[in-house]
Structure formats: C-alpha cells, structure tokens
Amino acid sequence: MKRGAIKAESGLIVGKIASAIFDTASNDSSGVSNKTIAAHGLGVFLPVGAIVIRSWYQVKTTFASTAGGSNLATIALSVASAGDLVAAIAIADGTTPWTAGNHGCLPGSWAERTVAGDTAVLDAASRAGSFIGALSAEKELTATVAVAALTAGKLMLFVEYVQGL
C-alpha cells in the first residue's frame, strides 16, 4: 500500500520502510516527465505522525543532464521540507551523490563527538537530532530537479520511519 492512515500504538511496534523509485524514463505522480525542472512527487506517502529515523538511496543509473559546466542539474530529495533528506546538489559534484551505488541521506546520520567528557547519551541526542517528524500532515516523497533538465538516471529511495503521535 502506498498511502493510508496508520494508528500509533503502545507496546512493541515494527519500524517501517517506505521505498520509492525516481526514474527519468517515467512520469511523476502528477503525470509530468521526471526529466523536467520541477518537484516530482514519487507517489509514496508517509502518514501523519511518522518520525523518519534513517534514509538512504541506491542509484541504479547514473544521472545526466542537458547542460554542462556550471549549469549541471541539481537533485534534492525531500519528505517534509525542501532538501530534508538530501539537499540540492549538482549531479557532477565531487562527492558523486548521483552516480551508481548506495548513498546516505541526512536522517540518521551523525558525527560521533570527540569532545572531552562525551557520553553515549550525548551521541544518542546527536543522532536523534537528525530525525524528521513527527509529521503534522501526510507527506509525499519528492525528488526536485533544478537548474537543467535531466537526460538519464534512476534511483530507489528508502525512508525508515516509526509511527509516532
């Protein structure tokens, strides 16, 4: 199921993983080509109360755009606000975020502290600070293309969440 209300419950719960495909050979949830400069809904929704605890994506086909040089396309991945999973970054950035392989997103990522007197509680607080949510409204996973249109590329986005209040 791609969307629907989920009830928060007390007791043992199972985390959920939403997955969505962004493919330049397809259209978005509104019927617009995923190659165009636009925010493209991926047709997968997270429910009200969802707390995103981790996310990552797998690029199957490296992304390419219609322009070269400093005009290369950017892509951002979002759920609640612009770029909250992956901020807009050029497809040819030196960190290679849009080339084939597995890549991390912001939620669930954290830098271990090296401050004197550090504790596991401080590390846990740092990681929890990267979470997104609890969502106040149902939100669609989105890929936003800017600067130039895309000519190729395909990825699968994974968003791990638990149901909060």
Measured distance between first and last alpha carbons = 21 Å
Q: Structural class, from secondary structure content? A: mainly beta
Unreliable stretches (pLDDT < 50, length at least 5) are: none
CATH class type? Mainly Beta
Topology order in helix (H) and strand (E) letters: EEEEEEHEE
The coarse overall form would be: globular
Number of domains: 1
| Strands in their spatial order, largest beta sheet | 1-8-3-6
Roughly what fraction of the amino acids lie in strands? 35-45%
Helix content: under 10%
CATH architecture: Sandwich
Oligomer: single chain
Give the averaged pLDDT, no decimals: 88
Q: In total, how many beta strands?
A: 8
Radius of gyration of CA atoms, rounded to a whole number? 17 Å
According to CATH, the fold-level topology is Jelly Rolls
Describe this structure in words.
The chain is mainly beta. It has a single domain (16-163), classed as Sandwich (Jelly Rolls), CATH 2.60.120. 5% of the residues lie in helices and 42% in strands. It has 1 helix and 8 strands. A hairpin with a 7-residue loop joins strand 4 (74-78) and strand 5 (86-90).
Offer a concise description of the structure:
The chain has 165 residues and is mostly beta strands.
